[in-house]
Fold these 4 entries.
Entry 1:
Amino acid sequence: MKKHPAREFTWFTEDEGLLHALAAVRHPAGERRHYDILEVDGKKVFVKSFSEKGVAGRIRQMVAPRGKKEFSIARGLRSLGIPAPLALGYGTGDLVSAVAESFIDGKSLLEHIKEGTGREDLLGRLADLLLSLRNRKVRHDDLHLDNILVSGDSLYLVDLHKVRLKRSFSNEDEVTNLTHALGIIYNDITKHERDIFFDRYGCTAETREKVENAVERLRARWIIKKMERAFRDTSVVIRKGNDIFIRGMENRAKGGYEATIKEDRKIKVERFSDHVKKTYAGRARLKRAWENHVVLEYLHMPVAPKAFHARLPSGEGKGYISMEDLQGKGEELDRFLDRNYDSMRRGEQKDFIDSLAAFFLGAMTWGITHRDLKACNIFVVASGGFRLLDVEDIRFEKVTGDVLKRTFLQLCNTIPKRISTRDRMRFFLRLSALISTDKKRLMREVLAGSLKEPIVYEGVSGLIVDKW
């Protein structure tokens, strides 16, 4: 290959026509990763650049720059017949490296599976891809479904610097690939869909058992890892000093101040013309809220208002998060029920309870719970669906009888007293099906706990305090 100097990189490429475009590529100061899409001779080229920090980063840069490593791995995968981006060149510089690849026009496999259309076919194609990796002795240590792109009839592996092309392939390698690929979706797909996947893949019963045992541990580690990276440059987050953005949202939240919605010793919530800003008195709640927003972004789970930007506290300035404004898009659950429940036909009441239960089933299946689940922290979207407010109180945890009990108690005493017993029971039975538990005992505990507390909620006419 020929060596060509570029502005911040020395580029290595066989494509002379690519050099002019690559010469304009820069890695912005302060970013760990950066992405560019270039137009070259009518075709799109994807450029991913990395920066390294510290002693470990300098050593890695000298031994195996990430851009060069991804370039080599992409070529190795394609030589084995495994779909991967076409590697066009790589660049190196002072603690930076980059890779230039053909642009793949597609969406992640995770997004497709979450959309719910053709899931059985997609799981079958995923099984084929993983079988191909096993047969060709390829291990991918970051094989979550955001790192598999669907384009046409093909699944492409991307983000390749954690791929290893091995001489031998152990059962541990196989379990790692399967667990990473299935970990984020495993509790979201049905037993029938799991059977389709494993039948197509053809692994042993022992390997399947190992994978199923490893999935829960992997998911917990994955969420912790994403939280740890919530304040660094990643494929989802961009950091610029004390400002952190969700990628693609850098130009959102620019509107002017309109009103203060709420202010107390913990938070201040202000409305701007194109967003809401939530300022936190304490660093811990801001940190927890932003970590939760970032994890939900990785999961593609629209269960909370979409976050755009966070400002970390500095000096006398407090930290805040800018997010989607839900004004005019619906109202909180307690007010919604107070306004609409009595006028609903019986079928409409049942449909509403079922949709609310389905929302919580979907969230809890992914281990998403809420520590302060008053009805005022559940937003009913007029066009359909729900959102959880006070994102700092979201937790990613295994759903247990105690978690369900807490959920039922908080909701039961923060909705109007006139919501019928049968609708409360309908909601209870839908959610309690999540786990194996003594439903009668759980219901007795919920009833006993509810009777000890008053009913408090925000109605159409203001705060309501009622008794059972």
Entry 2:
Amino acid sequence: MRVLLHYTHKQTLGHTTRTITLARTLAHYGAEVLVLQGAEPQPFICFPKGCRVLDIPFPFDNRTSFKSHHQPVYFQKRAQFIIKAAADFCPDVFITEFFPFGRLAYMPELLAPLRYLYKRGARIMASIGYPLLVNLDRFQNQKFAALQRAIFAFYDTFLIHTPPELETQYIQATLQSPILSGSYAAIIKDLRKKIVYTGYIFPTKIITGGTPLPTQKNAESKTLVISRGGGAVYPKLIKLAIEAQRHIRANISTIIACGPATSPEEMALFQSCLKPQDKGRVFLTNYLDNLDDHLRHCRVSVSLCGYNTSVQLMRYGIPSVIIPYRNTNFSMPTNDQIARAQLLQKHFSSLVLDGNTMTGDSLAFAIKEQMTRRRPTPAPADWFNGADVAARLVVQDTVN
């Protein structure tokens, strides 16, 4: 069978990792997979064997999309490219990543391919990391709501990559407006027959290169890991992490992974923040290909609250300080990082800091507090079967 996957990433890692892990698992079950990559290519990404990758031309989405919405000027040419790729590949299944729950800037290029593949009889599915309806507030507009429901109708299945309804309740709890909360509940209820909660997709190794660093593997780890995910947002976290580690006892070393999207100008700024006393105890890099190993065995993790790192924190039971990303450029009724931060705080004893008010001193205090605590109990193993559950569903349902 043949599976066509469409995804984009804005130079973050969560969307890329979920897509590649799902593609790898589909290939493991015998599917032929073609991945259509819609944003600027990430040259450090290692795609799995058995999967072909095509970069959609005229990419318009990158890290700057967090500050301003790019308009897909060439959406017609991109749509034509997707349709031609689909016609040549003849997929049994077409999977969009996050769309139509999010990534609505891609609607102009995806509508025509969706109609084309729907008429051709392909199964249409969505791979969704978290049950976040990005434009929930726009559902109050009848025209928008009608268009979204028409798009939902194309889909056979929405694969939501969390344990059953786990993050749904936290996302709904963050909605301050009773109207939006009711709207969210109604939409999820309307789609319930199409929704499958697969469990989390545990991040597999997808990065090649990066600076090598031996992993410390012992019960009394003396390493802190500070990570910024893809590196698209929150440069302040890196600067404050450099300051904070100076307040931690001298036998503790610190790995600071700024993220592969870190610009040369940002890295130069971070390097300039280092002082002579930091030499030998701070390792500063844009990315590591074995960051997962360091995270698994660290004393305390400091990070944003993105999907990949959060899933690792839950799976390994890692003491953590988290700073959920808040998009101050756009008014959003909720976001997945704020909701997931509440989940980690409640069930895994994470300490949550506000990125706007955090200081080097407050970050150091939180790190030292977590260093004194017992490691949280890891989440059940069956929370993390998302790739296998999703791939089996795609392959078996299509074959049957």
Entry 3:
Amino acid sequence: MSYHLHRTRQWTAWFLGALALSPFAFTFSFGSPEERQQLSPVTGRVCFAGRPVQDMTLCLDQGGRHAAFGLLRPDGSFALNTMGWTDRGAMPGRYHAHLYTFENGPTLPGKFRSPETSGVEIEIAPGWNDLQIELH
């Protein structure tokens, strides 16, 4: 068997396998349609000492679990996503927020890295929410 024919069969097998599994992937990764309809779009801005916080991730926790996150842009703005990256927004409710920074990222006081010590609580209401978060 030629190398070309062997590679063609490998790619065909991979494609057919992926195609066969794709309905299951969509079913399990995107949540229920009812859950997506209940999500509230959430945008906003995070500042510390009057300056925008950037190159960090705002994380919202509920019941000790991550529920939503938003990447902070250079102007401190964000748009929240569910933890699956597929749906924009967050479920209405009360959350504890904290910031996650990458190695060699910007620094803030350590208390903002944990939802228990950050002191930042956020209430997401049904419908669109625009949050202005000033860290102290």
Entry 4:
Amino acid sequence: MASSIIEEDLTIEGDVRSSGGRVDVKGHVVGDVSAETITVQLSGSVDGALSAKQITVEGKHKGSLKCDDLKLASTSHIQADLAAKTLATESGAKVVGKVEITGEQ
């Protein structure tokens, strides 16, 4: 699986797409991110829509989020409407928005 890393000192204004790959956000993205797997690292933030099969958020996200498997770390700060099949959250995760968990299908 191809991997793309957005480093801590990098800000991207625009959409990020990886067909079948992985995107690790350590910096800041202002735009939508779509990939097979997305990880928003502790130092990372995304202002836009996240769309992937698997998403892990340790940092900040503002916008919307749609995936099959969502993991929220204790350090995550989310201001978004979430739609996922499964959700795992650590104690301390902060979520403001509508949460829709559909279960396995």
